[in-house]
Amino acid sequence: MPNILACTDGSQYSHSVYDHAAWASRQMNSASIHVIHMLNPHHEKPATANYSGCIGLGARSALLNELVELEAAKAKIAKKRGQAILEDATTHLKQAGVAQVQADQWHGKLSDEISKYERDADLVVIGKRGNNADFEKGHLGSNLERVVRSCQHPVLVASRAFDKMNTFVLAYDGGSSAQKAVDYVANEPLLKGMHAYLLYVGSGNAKIEASLAASEAKLKAAGYEVTIEQRDGEPESIISDVVAQDHIDLLVMGAYGHSSIRQFIVGSTTTSMIRTVKIPVLLFR
Questions:
Q1: CA angle 285-21-272, nearest 5°?
Q2: Mean pLDDT computed over every residue of the chain
Q3: How far apart are CA 171 and CA 169, in angstroms?
Q4: What sign has the CA pseudo-torsion 44, 130, 120, 98?
Q5: Beta-carbon neighbour count of residue 177 at 10 Å?
């Protein structure tokens, strides 16, 4: 049975993560969902700084004991909060019709541990922003970029709120990650029933254009209605324009491109598109 890994931290994006995961479960023939919440000690401000330089020995010992008790209390609260988050996730997913839900809480940082938990997953779902992101400045979640780098499976980045998806645009540049996305879309059930747009930013490259035509044929053979969009310009602007003009519901792209969408996930077109578009993004490495 296919399995979806849904990452939650109880932030404003959490319910959207559950809704996107539930949608993916339905598309993937009732896939099971594994929800994980990480207890990350680095997000807590340490209460163990040395305040005792001029304090006598007895008072210093009492202070240190109180600090130890405070740390233990904070850890207990964080654990209970995590349990509440997972209970909420399970309830939400069950109400959305997901039959098999597993929820676990682990110690560590998601970006450091994700490779262990995604091994048995067919899809990873994560929110665009988390508890430590600055919403007003549009910053991405601190884990997102590193998680995408670490994942071998597709990563679905949830938008602020879930909305029904009928169309997707695949940003195609002829690179291996874009071709991997085409193969996945053609062979897997996740996007079945949606109208496909293949977007190539550029012109005059016969090799890429031949590959684009082959990708179009592959998607059509898999049952998709396909529209080709070929434009010149800056990839970020062109992708944003196509998303708006064609009323696109999902952006599909490689996390590491090949040509003008080439730069890395950090500081790249990919990162910029995740930050600026208001729709979910499906990423492939």
A1: 45
A2: 85
A3: 6
A4: positive
A5: 18
